[in-house]
Every structure is written in structure tokens, then in C-alpha cells.
Fold this sequence. Notes:
globular, 24 helices, two-stranded antiparallel ribbon, Amino acid/polyamine transporter I
Amino acid sequence: MTAEAEPLSADEQRLAELGYKQELKRGWSGFSNFAISFSIISILAGCFTTYGQAWLNGGPVAISIGWPVISVFILLVAFSMAELASAMPTAGGIYYLSSKLGGPAWGWFTGWFNLVGLVAVTASVDYAAATFLNSTLSFYGLHLFGVNFATASVQSSLHHVFVLFAIILIAHALINIFSSHLVALFTQISVCWHVIGVLVIIVLLVAVPSHHQSFGFVFGHRQNFSGFSNNMYWFYVLPLGFLLTMYTITGYDASAHMTEETHNAARSGPRGIVMSILISLIAGWVLLIGVTFALQKGNYLTEAAAGTAAPGQIFIDSIGRTGAELLLLIVIGAQLFCGMSSVTANSRMIYAFSRDGALPGSRIWHKVNKRTRTPTNAIWLAAGGALILGLPCLWNGSAYGAVTSIATIGLYVAYVAPTFLRLRQGANFKRGPWHLGRWSYVIGWIAVTWVVIIFFLFMLPQFGPISRLTFNYAPIAVAVVIGYAGLTWLLSARKWFTGPKVQGTPEELAAIEHELSA
């Protein structure tokens, strides 16, 4: 006798209306949904790894004033995304939205931009964690995994960082494969880690140093170590420093990607997006100001310009080696949490994109592990793609700046594509329970215009004079993605890719869900 299918919950019913069965386990709370975006944003990761970018391109002004100004534009992008995520809560997130609002071609290109952005975020976060970990291990001259971390040469250090980078990616993949419950637990721990970590860092940087920079220095000092002329400061050099804010506040689309695993998704997803950004913007600004005030007199120029791990040297000079080691452990822990969550979001996007046949080998990447109900193959692809994108850093440490640019460009283009399409629909767009009302249009158009500006800005050279060591390979990576997606679309995909595929009627989907749950 065939068992009778259980009735669909409200979330499953909405997913069925969108054309998908409940394959993934819906066990996430609203807080878990918020936590994964908060973990991927990770102010302890983004603020410190790109601090030097803003310091070199603009100085303290780019940090203390640039952060709150750029935050306004980021919030407008996020509000627009949240409204759309409420209307169509699926794992495909913004790719699904573009497909439904603009047709298969829009969905195709949005998906590829989103994919490369998520891969780049995973690469940049885990590479930064490897860089900070390498610096910490070098303090003690340790020998691990057959590697002598006491070696001081630049090339050896790059090799050591890459080894750690690969190990971290593998560990994050395994954690994601093991259990979505474990990932959800870690993301909740990550929230506490970030909140407490930020408080500890700020308190120590305020209380311990014998000297602090002046208010006028932190909020008014301008400088240009970019290699470009001072005449270009306001219209080119300073805007390049905005990468600090734009890169740090990325990855919040994770709340949209995880909606198929979240209870009350049409409300929890949008709230996760907005709240993760608001808290990160406020805490990140306070954190950056605290670090800038703690810069020590006489050597702040060289230390802050030292590279990705420059904050480690700032910690040592301001509070001593013992205190610096504690703060570095806090930062590394946050980066590891962030990287783990990045792999999660990336794999869910790969799962959804391949579910609709958009990736080469889609049947492989869409496969779900029946025991853990996690997209195992998609997780490995997410980690492997990040490793490949980080390869240039093996020979040239400055290539890390390009990885952060790729992440920012890819994600923000994908973020506003469905917003643009929603604006074109006007009153025909069917809103979800979380929406912006009459402000949708004003907020949406400002968000789209802002992303067009940064798209071109962050593909320009970041440092001069332009050479092999300072070359920004972000335009090449973006061109490869656009070229591949465009060529594939013209030659093949436009004939068979129809966007998100409906998997069945609500009754059929309920029966499949019952089979998966058996």
C-alpha cells in the first residue's frame, strides 16, 4: 500500500508554486538565515584584509568618512534585493529572479556573474585567512605539514600561504558536506564570535596603547600611496579606496540562497539580508575607527601599507606581541567562519543553477546526498573553483586585490540585475510580504546607477605605475566570464536553456518530498 503524501507546509507550498520540490532540508531558523549573511560579510575578515587598500588610496578619510557614505548605497542595493527575495524565496536567489522577471537570457548572465562573484568571495576570504595564519605561524617559526613557516623569503611565504589556502578550502568543504545542521550551528557561533571579537579588539586598542592618533588625523587626513598623481586624488584615487567598504559588505545574498532551508522564508530571508548589513555597517565602522586611532606615531605609514596582513603589525606596535596574538586569533577565527559560510552559499547557488541545466555537467553538480541532504558535488566545485581563482596569488601576492575586485563586481552586478528588471515591470510585479512600498522605484534606480559606476571603477588599475606586479587582472576574469557565457548562449544555450525548470504540480512535488523524507 502506497503511503499518503503529507500535506505541504506554507513554505513548501510557496516553493511548489515557484515550481520546485523540497529537496533540501528546511531546518534553518530566521536567526540562522541572518547568521549566514552576517558570517559571510564578516567585518573581522573584510575590514582587515582590505584595510591597506583604503589606506593607500585615500588614507584615513577613505576609511572614516568613506565607510558611512558608501554604506548608504549598499543599503539601497540590499533593500531592493530583500524585496525581491520576499517575493520569490528560492535557493537560486537572484538568478531565479532575473529569469522570471527578464527571461532566460537575463537569468543566464545573472547566474554566471553571481557564480563568479561567489567563487571569488570564497577565494578571497580563505586566502586572507591563510595569509593571517601564515603570519601567526611565522611568529613561532613552526614546521607544519612539511612546511617551514619561519622561512622569510617572499616567494616561500607565497607558497606557504597557498598550502594553507588549499587546506582551509578542503576543511570547509568537508564541514559543509558533513551536515547542514553543523553549518547552521557554526554560523550561529560565528555571530557571537564576531560581536565579542569586535568588542575585545576595540577595548584593547582604546585602553592599552600609550598614544592615539588625533581626531583630525582619523577624520581629515588625506594621503596617496597609490602611485598615481595627487591631481587624481578626488576623482580616481579616493574612489579606489571605496573597495574596502564595497568588498566587506558582500555575500548577504546568502540569506536569499538559503531560503529553501529556512522557516517562514518570505519574511526571514529579507530580514536576514537587511539586519546582517545594518549590524555589520555600524560595527565595522566603529572597528575601523578604533584601528585607525591606534596607529602609532612615526611608523603608521609603512605598517598600514604593508599588505593584506598589515593589521597584525598594527596590533603588535599598539598593544604588544602577546595582545596582538590574541587579536590575530580572533580575526583568523572570524575569517574561517566566513569562509565556511561562503562555501555554503556558493554551493547552494551552484546547486540551483545546475538544477536548471545551466552549468556544464549539471547532473553531477545538482546531485543531493540522500543521507545528509546536502549538495555534495556542488560543494566540491565551489571549493575547487576558489582554489583555481586564487592560483595567480601563488606567484604574485598583489593579485589578491584583483580577487577582491572580481568578487565585488560579480556579486553587485548580479545583485542589481533583477532590481533593474523589477523596475521595468512596474506595477505588474507581484510583491511578497516584505516590500518597500512606493519607495521601490527611487531606491531601485539609485542602486542600479551606483553599481554601474563601481563596475567600471574596480576594473581600473588600483596601483601605479602599471606593471606585472601591479596589474589588475579583474577585467580579464570578468571578460572570460562574459565571453564564455555569451559565446555559449549564442552557440547553444539559447536553443535549450529556458530558465528555471518547473519540476511538477504541487501534488507531485509533495509526493517527491514524502519519498525523500522516507
